[in-house]
Amino acid sequence: MLNTSARTLFITLDLPYPPRAGAPLRNWQNINLMKQYGDVAVLSIFKGQPPEKTLPGIENWYHYDLGQKRPLKERLERRLSVLQPWRYSYIDWFYTQPAVELLKQILQDLKPSIVVFEHLWLCRYLRVVQGYPCKIIFDEHNIEADLFEQKIHQIIEFLPKIKMNLQKNYIQSMERKIAYKSDQIWVCSQSDADKLQQRYGHKLNPYVVPNGINVTNYETVRNGQCTPAFQAQFNPHTLIFIGTFSYPPNVEAAQFLTQEFYPKIKQLYPNTLLIIVGKNSPPALTAATQKEPGILWTGLVEDVKPYLAAASVVITPLFKGGGTRLKILEAFAAGRPVVSTTKGAEGLEVETQKHLLIDDTVEGMVDAVNQFWSNPTLYKNCVDNAYNLVKTRYSWEAVADKIQPLIQKLISQD
């Protein structure tokens, strides 16, 4: 524990609580773990007003609503942005002068020792924070230039591909800038640390702060005390996929499940129920599957635990993306076996046949689900091993042990 306290300000682009997706879960983890070193404040910047005015355990929460009318200068700049095809509008969208003024006021009033940027997309506020005597942590949820490059490979048309390459260069320049100007860079996994150094040079020294979860929150699911959602408690052949569908890799995964995987698993188990949980459900996909009673789209849910309780297997067929999969860690803590692709389990210290089953083909994933449903010993062994892993490596307590020396080093630099 530190000898002196450290006041921390988090700047996020998500609703901090309740955390219902991967990024908010990581943010909420870091917010809570930093409380052991001193007061924590949060500035959230997104469109809309939060449903609640307070955060559990956080005294100072500030919010700027991006839905407010922009200053004239910014509105003109947005119209002229068509003349700058290299700029990536998502970065500019989160930046506005009224939020700058709010941030300045917070920095003056609270005088934080540490400011944590959650996500690259907030990078234009870096210059503001640099004007104050505080340490800066850049929490890199994904290596964004790497993800953008994955998207480019899918583009066939010449002009869109040229534009996306220009935008990738812009993202890359902003990512490089904030990485080198931050006092510490946190990444989700060693895989992401390697990607960051390969792209921006080995002078960078990213620290691995794993995604973790509050394991005790899922204990009611694991011990059977959580009431399952829907009628699924009557169906032992229930699968669940959890994701936010504004994230393209999750849309691709949902397409794979509904169009390729589900018809094949249904041939083996005609009563199979596939539950797809998450906000921003793609209309084309939901419409295409609405006549299939065995596929249920829930949209945004208040609490994912009843849906995990309904499932006998959690499936994560991701083929692109970065970071690590909190949906897998949730399943491990909830005592639910996981079938995943290699990419889906990337960044987690897992072994197939020990903690979960991994395959990258539709036939292989169907077989993996069949193995869990037909082999109780394999089911139990994977569930038990995965639970032990999440407790020892990916619990909040385990992540706290990773963070402590980093904060000690950061503060001792003064």
From TrEMBL:
GO terms for biological process: lipopolysaccharide biosynthetic process. Pfam families: Glyco_trans_1_4 (PF13692), Glyco_transf_4 (PF13439). InterPro entries: Glyco_trans_4-like_N. Residues 81-215 form the Glycosyltransferase subfamily 4-like N-terminal domain. Keywords: Transferase. SUPFAM superfamilies: UDP-Glycosyltransferase/glycogen phosphorylase. One of its GO terms (molecular function) is glycosyltransferase activity. This is Glycosyltransferase. It comes from Planktothrix rubescens CCAP 1459/22.
